[in-house]
Amino acid sequence: xxxxxxxxxxxxxxxxxxxxxxxxxxxxxxxxxxxxxxxxxxxxxxxxxxxxxxxxxxxxxxxxxxxxxxxxxxxxxxxxxxxxxxxxxxxxxxxxxxxxxxxxxxxxxxxxxxxxxxxxxxxxxxxxxxxxxxxxxxxxxxxxxxxxxxxxxxxxxxxxxxxxxxxxxxxxxxxxxxxxxxxxxxxxxxxxxxxxxxxxxxxxxxxxxxxxxxxxxxxxxxxxxxxxxxxxxxxxxxxxxxxxxxxxxxxxxxxxxxxxxxxxxxxxxxxxxxxxxxxxxxxxxxxxxxxxxxxxxxxxxxxxxxxxxxxxxxxxxxxxxxxxxxxxxxxxxxxxxxxxxxxxxxxxxxxxxx
Length: 354
Fold this sequence. Notes:
By secondary structure, this protein is an alpha/beta fold.
């Protein structure tokens, strides 16, 4: 399995690029490159296909689009997106991207895995890449990019356990899957780690909304958990999670965001966010694929060791001791002192070893 080093992941973009603001703009940006003697040259064309959460989900898809837009701003590439309203749109949109002449096509989200694998086999002359899924069939033109989201979830679980006054914390998930389970189990493990370290007895409850685009469902689940006494809630649910944040703001309890820093959604409510630097994965891996330093046909995994996951720098609502404690936890994960579980069986083993 091919793995990016910290240096190759961060690259020349630097730390400032990691806080690039996600944009809500239209479906196409970019201009033509020129040759040294001034002759027009066709711009590199990259198209992104969203999952059903849509490009304005304030989370995963929006952050992916931010990485695409950075390619346009910095390199002059022609970038655009196609939104999927339902699962049946995945293959249709991938075919549209091929027909539009894209040199590289990104699929965003594990739900697109089968469609992207099929499209890559059918179009060997086009590069494909997918976030949160893998190259399952050995296609030489497909790059799978996955993240150790359990690691950033562990850090915010640690924060949740130390911030709760009621001793009860909650989780709102999107669509239940192996990928999404790693968010939940990492979060739960961070709570249990804090319980052991701090002598706490915080309890956990969680529920799946089975949607990434149903804010009303996210709000209803959150309201139920709040009614049960939860006073810190974390979501890994895309646009569904915005409903959770709204419910927390209305009830005056703490919320934890995901993927990007979501403190702007409710500055007096969101205490931190689990960062998953999808924007920089798209930005840097796209350049490597187009430039030829990465040829495709591989799977790449990014985690805390590559600075690809972590917690938001915004911590105005957190006591410094707790924020520093969370950073120390991340350092232990990087050093291999904490191995974060990503499924229920691994969680049981982890808890038994505390």
